[in-house]
Specification:
8 helices, UbiB_kinase, two-stranded antiparallel ribbon, globular
């Protein structure tokens, strides 16, 4: 998978968690999923209609990944998105893993589990693309600080660090 597609996948998780459907469409475009010439405003409107009413618990969407995937796929069919094999494989794998995790723990939330990994990857990747995503977490379109989004990002990132230090301490 190309590096820019990896970054776009990470960004898509951030944008789903933040409910930024226009940015999600941009991510899909960056992954070469959206065909050139597609009306991006219409695609964004369809995402807003399909996913705009998501409930959030502690800043994380309370929705199953497989449900989000189903809505993305229905929009993909409507607009004849290209689905590269790597993208389909990753999405199907995540949906399968979610099913296994939910079978073991009915309260499992894929986005809550994935977000610390995304935070870590973005904080350690010093590329221009990663900085652009971090900028979108910190600032809105009017260049105002988005305190809630930034706080969630930092809380989850520091929780990951706290858990890592706990495991290191526990192992001796």
């Amino acid at each position: 998978m190309k590096k820019e597609h990896q970054i776009a996948m990470l960004a898509s998780i951030i944008h789903i968690v933040n409910g930024d459907w226009g940015a999600l469409v941009y991510d899909l475009t960056s992954m070469d999923v959206v065909r050139p010439g597609t009306n991006l405003r219409s695609v964004t409107k369809d995402f807003v209609d399909a996913l705009g009413e998501v409930n959030y618990i502690d800043g994380i969407p309370d929705i199953k990944f497989s449900l989000v995937l189903g809505k993305i796929l229905s929009i993909a069919l409507k607009y004849q998105f290209r689905m590269p094999p790597y993208y389909t494989l990753v999405l199907r794998s995540l949906a399968s893993l979610e099913g296994l995790a939910v079978a073991a723990d009915q309260k499992f939330q894929t986005f809550r589990a994935a977000y610390p990994y995304v935070v870590k990857k973005l904080l350690y990747d010093n590329s221009k693309a990663a900085r652009r995503i971090l900028y979108s977490v910190v600032f809105n379109n009017r260049r105002e600080i988005q305190w809630k989004k930034m706080l969630l990002f930092l809380e989850i990132g520091s929780f990951q660090k706290l858990m890592l230090s706990f495991y290191i301490t526990a192992d001796g």
